[in-house]
Amino acid sequence: GLSPDGSSSYFLPRLIGLRRTQELMLTNRRLDAAAALDWGLVTEIVPDEQLLPAATTLAQKLADGPTRAHGVVKRLLIDSYGNGPETQMELEARGIAAMAGTEDGREGIAAFLA
Q1: Alpha-carbon distance values, 97 to 9, 66, 71 (Å)
Q2: Residue 79: inside a domain
Q3: What's the domain count of the chain?
């Protein structure tokens, strides 16, 4: 057998927990789509023929959204694994302050207050 690679031993336990990762890696279990959804590895299941349209729709939605804010969200979520609550709240405060001055931020505030 082989050992894990591609950072799977780092990311999988954080995504699905240590025990499920052990089960996958030690038994070489193959997950079907329903199990992957149940375990939180995927967020949606679509039939094969709908995969490209669904992916295109999601990509367009993200591209049409507040891309700078998306970048801040992604960074905050990634950093949250190494931060305590106080540090994370400080980073959130910095992020929202930085975004509030942008057009995307103003639109987000207006939408929230509407």
Answers
A1: 36, 15, 14
A2: yes
A3: 2
